[in-house]
Amino acid sequence: MHNSILIKNGHIIDPSQGIDSIGDILIEDRKIKEVRLQPNKRQGEVKVKGQIINADGLYVFPGIVDMHAHLREPGFEYKETIKTGTMAALKGGITSVCCMPNTNPVNDNRTVTEFILKKAYAEGSCYVYPIGAITKGQKGEELAEMGLMYEAGCIAFSDDGRPVVSTLLMRRALEYSKALNVPIISHCEDISLSDSGTMNEGSLSTKMGLKGITYAAEDIMVARDIILSELTGGKLHIAHVSTEGSVRLIREAKKRGINVTAETCPHYFTITEDAVANYNTNAKVNPPLRTQRDIEAIKEGLKDGTIDVIATDHAPHHGDEKLQEFDKAPSGISGFETAFSLSLKLVHDGVLSISQLIEKMSYTPARILGINAGTLKVGSQADLTIVDMNKEFKVEATKFLSKGKNTPFEGWILKGTSVMTICRGKVFDCQSFIGG
Amino acid sequence: MKDLVGIKELSKDKIKLILDTASSFKDVLKRDIKKVPALRGKTVVNLFFEPSTRTKTSFELAEKRLSMDVLNFSVPTSSVVKGESLFDTIKTIEAYGVDFIVIRHSSSGAPHFIARNVDASVINAGDGINEHPTQALLDAFSILERKGSLKGLNIAIVGDILHSRVAKSNIYLLSKFGANIRLIGPPTLVPEMTDYHIDVFYEMDEGLKDADVIMMLRIQMERQGKGFFPSTLEYFKNWGLDMRRLKLAKKDAIVMHPGPMNRGIEISSDVADSEQSIILEQVTNGLAVRMAVMYLLKKESENA
Ligand SMILES: [Zn+2]
Q1: pLDDT at B258
Q2: What is the CATH superfamily name and number for domain A2-58+378-431?
Q3: N or C: which end of chain B has fewer CB within 10 A?
Q4: pLDDT of residue B84
Q5: Which residues of chain B have pLDDT under 70?
Q6: Partner-chain contact B109 A207, CB within 8 Å
Q7: Helix or strand or coil: residue B21?
Q8: B53 is in an annotated binding site
Q9: Cβ contact A326–B127 (<8 Å)
Q10: Cα A100 to middle of ligand 1, angstroms
């Protein structure tokens, strides 16, 4: 018996099997060998020769599947690499990262896909699933070779960072992707309406003298894509939902049986546009941070199942890029290392049960993407994270493993964090990096 | 107070102090020798990333009247066009040991960004579509000279409010002093400002009724063709100030304009040159106000 790990007495939550109970998990050869829940204890102690982890008082969850992240490699290694990004992911409890194609070159062909996968295999700490571009060069002119990229390992397609402006092309993407049965992930923004705005449009943008982006820029595109999804039957996934209107439109679409799923990110239910006051470029994101009303709607959408997934939209940038005039600074938050703890607040505040939260962060994204993750079923990959729900820690960007130190949550005290993440058969001690 | 980045951040008391001080500097400007040694030995750099002959001249003259050493940083020939970041540019300038940085920049918040990163006093000479604080101060000074008080005055601000930093700074200042502010313009150019007590009029005749002050704004000609309004002809017809409309305001209403004017587009020539126009007084007052601002920033940073 080699390479075995026993996690003892953890509070196991696995929504894929409806497990919410104290128990032990035995891992052998990187796979879940046995899950033994407490009422069955009389079966006797599990005996192992390998490593034993005492999870008394801790929770054990399937590893987080982050379906929206930017690893920046190839092309922007000064912002992040697959190596640094996946380390940061593990620290945040994430064992599978889906990376957006806006690299340089763009991941719009199988060569780039293969490069990412090889690099991830050689240098990555967790699993990496590339998302291919919908259109060549993300230019919105011609479909990229989705079939070949799918064969090479892409699990979804997106021009994230920009919308597919042409309605005809978006229709074709949704139609064409049906052959592969993979989702088209849509960055919903009517760019003729957002018109190079840099924050949410409203009284605050006027007061700050910044050009705003109206909520309608998102809502209009969500509406268009829902209509196209209905027309084509293609699998539509709406990325980073930030508005009340989007939530309402998606809710209605689901009620009518349209093939649409949606995600949001921790910053969209945690902070409002007020975070950019004083021209704080670390709070500049796209779509922009909105209002309290939008936050409430997003929470409601998470609660009633309208929003299926919580993703990080991890978007690391170099410090020099954020140290600029607000309108010139790039958008994005370095999210891997705070996303889970920020999301736990939904549990602490009674918005979601812990099971619902884990489902939205692991099982559901895996299911939408058709990847083998997000579960603790016997025989599946042993990707999991061990969490101390009560451990408080202070967010300090300088301690991030990600190269991106761009966070609006600097100095926040968060409650609950991964203390250990197991992925690819390796045990990663998150605490040694938190200084706890 | 180290910097003057906006009116938003400025207390009522500070504004009063600046206006009072400007009064004494205005007396200086009436003398034969208009120069005072108040800031001798201090160095100021004028950093104009956007062209502006008027504001730049006004600042430069104010600086010279205060006996400062003046550096003009001319952007087109500088390293900025070669891709140097604003951060590096200001760090370089700071290394020269300057005391004041006067900045105009097309990005809103650029002066705030600089103020956070240097020890020198930063004065905002206009940032993006955000603020132009010294203009609002000189406007208030000019109104006070004519009207004695701001409280309760009906002040109509007319035109492209959305893109006007002059309008924004004026709204913040005048609302601190209890003026009744009315915004008049096409709906495409009047932004959402729900935090302030403001009346919005899309119809000029209605908005001008009983106005004590009419502040005309410059129509930026490059906005035409961008869909904010269909033509300058239609604009003047609906929101231009001519003699007939001026009569709708109070008899002793004053007309202001930050300049440069587009005669026949936002304002007719006979109004611009009328008895009620105080446009040239605004220019003179700008000098006194800018002297006051720099004088007070220096004094306060030395007391700190
Ligand atoms: Zn996006």
Answers
A1: 96
A2: Urease, subunit C, domain 1 (2.30.40.10)
A3: C
A4: 80
A5: 76-82, 300-304
A6: no
A7: helix
A8: no
A9: no
A10: 9
Residue A144 Cα to ligand 1 middle (Å): 18
pLDDT in tens, B274-300: 999 999 999 999 999 999 999 999 776
Give the residue from chain A lying closest to B128, CA to CA: A209
- Residue A294 is a catalytic residue: no
Strand ranges of the sheet holding B121-127, from the earlier edge strand across to the other edge: B69-74, B43-48, B100-105, B121-127
Give me the domain span that covers residue B44.
10-130+282-295
Q: Are residues B271 and B167 in the same domain?
A: yes
Q: Of A207, A324, A328, which is closest to B8 when you measure between CB atoms?
A: A207
Domains: count for chain B: 2
Closest by Cα among A276, A225, A267 to A242: A267
Instruction: Give residue limits of the domains in chain A.
Output: 2-58+378-431, 62-367
Tell me, yes or no, whether B81 and B208 share the same domain: no
B123 by Cβ neighbours in 10 Å (0-12 / 13-18 / 19+) ranks as buried
Is there a contact between B85 and A203 if contact means CB atoms under 8 Å apart?
Answer: no
Give the percent of chain A with pLDDT over 70.
96
| Distance in Å, CA A108 to ligand 1 centroid | 17
Q: Please check the confidence at residue A434 and state whether its pLDDT lies above 50.
A: no
Note if the bond before A74 is cis, omega within 30 degrees. Answer: yes
Q: Do A211 and B129 touch (CB under 8 A)?
A: yes
CATH of the domain at B96: 3.40.50.1370
The two structure tokens encoding residue A192:
């003729």
Q: Is B223 annotated as a binding residue?
A: no
Taking the alpha carbons of A165, A168, A169, A172 in that order, is the dihedral positive or negative? Answer: positive
**Active-site pick, A14, A24, A66, A313:** A313
In B, which residues are within 8 Å of A211 by CB distance?
129
Q: Read off the pLDDT of residues B128-170 as tens digits, 9 standing for 90 and up.
A: 999 999 999 999 999 999 999 999 999 999 999 999 999 999 9
